[in-house]
Amino acid sequence: MSQIKKLTADVDTEEYYNNYVDFEKFSKLCIEEQEMLEYNWSYPPFEFDVDEVWNSYNKLKIIAFKIEFSQEELDHTFSDKELEFILKRFERMKVKLMNEIYALENEDSLGLFLGKCNLCMRCTRGFGMPCKMPFKMRYSIEALGGDVDRTIEDLFGDKILYAHDGKLPDYLIFVGGLLYDKKIGD
């Protein structure tokens, strides 16, 4: 791995909601992903109104971690098993990167996870049991209906890339955030 760059942008939550949030569209994608992989408490369906979450804060700090690979890593062709192992290692890295978002939280803010929660080896939702770590589990921007691909393109000029055919992409981007400046009375 060459390096990790942290990208941030502060936006007006109402403006972000109006331009990038489509909960119906992205919740369907999250549910389809869960049906193929496994269920997760950080993904819909939820027992709360997503609009209320977005409408409770004035500001959104987009926090993205861009992992750029070395030329040697990019030139190598990995077996399916090797590539799966490497990508799982980066998924686990999200927990460490998430600590930077937790550190920004206070009583007037809410951290947003870098994609699907992976704090536990296996989420208890698939077993019909409550979350084992509700104090650390956070929802992601996409789980709350945000279009992360378009967000990254518009705010940072990058595209979300994926590994394919045994090759790593030029970079991986994990996107999280922080809803802050809680509205008075919420």
Mass-distribution shape = globular
Arithmetic mean of pLDDT: 89
CA distance, first residue to last residue: 43 Å
Order of helices and strands: EHHHEHHEHE
Query: Helix share of residues?
Result: 25-40%
In DSSP terms (H or I, runs of 4 or more residues), the helix count works out at 6
The radius of gyration is 17 Å
What are the SSEs and their pairings?
Layout: E1 3-12, H1 13-20, H2 23-36, H3 50-55, E2 57-68, H4 71-75, H5 80-104, E3 110-112, H6 148-156, E4 171-182
Antiparallel strand pairs: 1-2, 2-4, 3-4
List keywords for this structure.
20% strand; 186 residues; 36% helix; four-stranded antiparallel β-sheet; 6 helices; single chain; alpha+beta; globular
What does this protein look like?
- The model has no long low-confidence stretch (mean pLDDT 89).
- The protein has helices at residues 13-20, 23-36, 50-55, 71-75, 80-104, 148-156, and strands at residues 3-12, 57-68, 110-112, 171-182.
- The N and C termini lie far apart (43 Å).
- The protein has a 4-stranded antiparallel sheet with strand order 1-2-4-3, with helices on both faces.
- It is α+β, with helices and mostly antiparallel strands.
- The protein is globular.
- The chain is built from 6 helices and 4 strands.
- It has one domain (3-182).
